[in-house]
Design goal:
Layout: H1 6-23, H2 29-39, H3 50-61, H4 70-85, H5 92-97
Helix pairs in contact: 1-2, 1-4
Length: 114
């Protein structure tokens, strides 16, 4: 499996931030990006258990190459938008409690909204 590049990480944060901002239009740009970074485990947050961070890292790695591959990027974007629409990205706690990593991955069968 390919490694996640810094460009992949930036695109993932950007897409997650856009999805969160759509649901929370009054949040500041900084708050949206910070929340996205924490949920995706690119930014440290003491409220996340190690098991969440490990599972999220494994889910993220499945999207290695999304910065340069439209199909991978669209798959991630679709999944992250569905999670945001369900309120599962409203906070780090919501992401942890709903175990979003289970619905985030290449070919993942989404249960968000089900």
């Amino acid at each position: 499996m390919a490694e996640l590049s810094s460009e992949d990480a930036e695109v993932m944060i950007e897409l997650a931030a856009e999805a969160i901002a759509d649901r929370h239009p009054l949040w500041s740009f900084r708050d949206v990006r910070d929340t996205a970074g924490k949920i995706l485990c690119f930014v440290f947050s003491p409220s996340k258990p190690p098991s969440y961070s490990q599972a999220m890292a494994e889910a993220r790695e499945q999207f290695a190459g999304l910065a340069d591959d439209d199909d991978i990027r669209l798959e991630f974007q679709h999944q992250i938008q569905a999670l945001a629409e369900d309120g599962r990205l409203d906070s780090v706690e919501a992401a942890v409690n709903s175990q979003i990593w289970q619905d985030l991955g290449r070919g993942a069968a989404m249960t968000a909204g089900a």
